[in-house]
Design brief:
This protein is an alpha+beta fold. It has four helices and four strands, in the order ααβαβββα. The N and C termini lie far apart (50 Å).
Length: 161
């Protein structure tokens, strides 16, 4: 009985092209994700969503230790009724978020990188007034966190050599 297994051969042949391609992990010792950590100061709107966005950016990229770069973010949230019942009650809202960001060096207005991150979330409005307000606040927090994650991904891509 032979112990030959085609699956093992396929796994090995799939890994061979990556062995010599120069691939380096973004969060590896010399990866671009590590080189940004602690080097970016953040400027975001002075709102609850801006606070949540800054907190997530600090969580992902670290608190500023050396202000080598300045990340400026403008937020825009737009809320629309998503589901309207037959009695004309709004049961669900959709919040679309856009974050326009620019990475510069302090004192220099020439952008090193810039971009726009867009995503959305929704919340239910079928409960009490308090429950609906809490659902809205939670949705706005989730949206700010998701936008921050998209910005971090864009920054890492922009800094890959």
């Amino acid at each position: 009985m032979s112990s030959f297994n085609r699956r093992h051969l396929l796994k090995l042949s799939a890994a061979l092209p990556l062995a010599g391609c120069g691939f380096t992990p973004v969060y590896g010792p010399e990866g671009s994700g590590r080189t940004l950590r602690g080097r970016i100061a953040y400027r975001a709107p002075n709102t609850t969503e801006g606070f949540r966005l800054r907190a997530r950016l600090e969580e992902r990229l670290g608190r500023v230790e050396r202000g080598d770069y300045l990340l400026t973010v403008d937020l825009d949230f737009d809320e629309d009724a998503l589901v309207v019942s037959s009695s004309q009650d709004i049961n669900r809202f959709n919040i679309e978020g856009t974050a326009t960001w620019t990475l510069t060096e302090p004192g220099n207005d020439t952008p090193l990188a810039s971009g726009t991150a867009e995503t959305f979330t929704a919340y239910s409005a079928s409960g009490t007034t308090v429950a609906t307000q809490e659902s809205q606040t939670d949705a706005q927090d989730r949206l700010a966190i998701a936008l921050a994650d998209l910005i971090v991904t864009d920054l890492i891509i922009a800094t890959v050599p």
